[in-house]
Amino acid sequence: MIDKKYSIGLDLGTSSVKAVLFDGKKVVESLSAPFSFRESKLEDGAQYIGFSVDEYAEIVFKVISNLAKVVNGKVSGIAMASASGNTVICDKNYNAVIDAYSWTNSAFKEESLKVYGEIDREYAANVSGWGYAGALPLSHLAHVKIHSPNVIENCAKICMSTEYLLYKMTGKWGIDRSTAVPFFLLEQTTAKWHKPYLKALNISEDLLPNVYESGDFLGNITKEFSCKYGIDENCKVYLGSFDHPSGAIANGVVNEGELLLSCGTSWVLFFPYHDREVLIKNRILCDTFLSKEKGLWGGMCSVPQVSKKIDKIIESNISKTDAIKLFNEYSKKANKGADGLRINPTTDMDLDFSAYSKENIARALMEGAAYLLKDKLDFLSSLGIEFNSVKMAGGPSQSEIWVDIIRYIINKPVEVVYGVDSGAVGAAKRAFN
To answer: Are 102 and 214 in a shared domain?
Structure first.
């Protein structure tokens, strides 16, 4: 009798980790755990939003361990999808020397300008796939170089939090081309580290992880990891991807004309597309996605951090306790159009809506978020990019009324398959070999 196979896929989000145990067809079990940031400082007192990457690793690894217990540790593969963009700097023993930088830090524009000079947005996009706005790891490294130069001068490895986890699991350093996009240092089309950025930071390529494709085998877990977390020592670790393309893999969004609405901290329209130049020219974020296998890049149109703004409006105008439950219940009781009330979550989060009923506030907020998606769809349509299939992932996909509102406003059928587990399932599929 052949033992049944199981893989574990993780979706490493902004403030929580989600994970699934997958049997090749369905989710057997799912778990999640939160983690938090803190105010961190460099040696000269410069502040940033940081976190202990070792405490973070322990949270992630306990989630993996608890899922593995369901099948007595018999897990054949593990892979991770991640929002990424968190910067880690390690010493010669490959331990973090300072708190990791969260991707949610505001732009360090002054430090960036001092280190790199003016970086043209289109230039940066042609290099990495994303336009540079003074944020994320390229900015974090400039911040460290200006305020704690010895940290970079004496470091032995520079990576993001996902690569740090992978190293602690396997003893090997690796990064896939998709996860590397928000790192900014990797050339998207050549898979080589961009020398002008490295020169400005005065670092060498050997300080950075080895580069692979999404889905590539990195290594087996170490014996130490196997013993500590109760996982079969033959378990293999595979490279994953950025979170939205992982959600697309889970939901079968792998051809042109197919769209994933990925509603997490930021709301993202992710779609396969053949022409990278069109994406870059029109300021659409570009992922490597299936460029090697099928010649298809991943386009991403984003409404950045909109969930935080939605939450603020809910807490201020609807409830601070049982907020999501009440939000859904109130919205079901309102009429379409919320009796004329319109709310734009990106611009109206500080407004007072106390003159309106909670039912209309809830409905208008859901509709307002849906209209933001429609604006993005209209923009893509103006470029000749149309969709005949739409899947939805993320927290809002669990709300039947919200999904119905989105269907109505974008005037397209919207299907929910794996919902909130999509990113983790996409990773689990990559690890199911």
So the answer is: yes
